[in-house]
Amino acid sequence: RMDLVGVPKGMQKMPIVLVTAGILAMAFMGFAGLVKI
């Protein structure tokens, strides 16, 4: 699936996976701050 996206050569494979994982982690941390248990 990642092969279909226009990604610069230096960002292919592992770097783009790490960047995506970091963005998802920040999103989940933001959602955790919205809900108080």
Structural class, by secondary structure, is mainly alpha
Given the C-alpha coordinates, what overall shape results?
A: rod-shaped
- End-to-end Cα distance: 37 Å
Biggest sheet character: none
The sequence of SSEs as H and E is H
The percent range for strand residues is under 5%
Contiguous low-pLDDT stretches (5 residues minimum) are: none
What average pLDDT do the residues reach?
A: 77
Tally of DSSP β-strands: 0
Fraction in helix: 55-70%
Summed up, the helix count is 1
Radius of gyration: 14 Å
Protein model, in words:
The protein has one helix spanning 14-34. The radius of gyration is 14 Å and the shape is rod-shaped. By secondary structure, the chain is mainly α. It has 1 helix and no strands. The protein starts with 13 loop residues before the first helix and ends with a helix.
